[in-house]
Amino acid sequence: xxxxxxxxxxxxxxxxxxxxxxxxxxxxxxxxxxxxxxxxxxxxxxxxxxxxxxxxxxxxxxxxxxxxxxxx
Length: 72
Fold this sequence. Notes:
Blueprint (H helix, E strand, L loop, with lengths): L2 H10 L4 H25 L2 H17 L12
């Protein structure tokens, strides 16, 4: 465990039990969210790279048009 985590845990230990539980629930929720997003988008980099390459190729041969924000 890192020094920062040791310090945080030591400070948390001084809180009343209900506050400790509140912080623990928050932290566990955050960790679950991070795991969820990692699973959802962990493999998307390859797909994004492929889409970007296709867009560059389309642009190189003139199959794209300039986006006019006023027409959105």
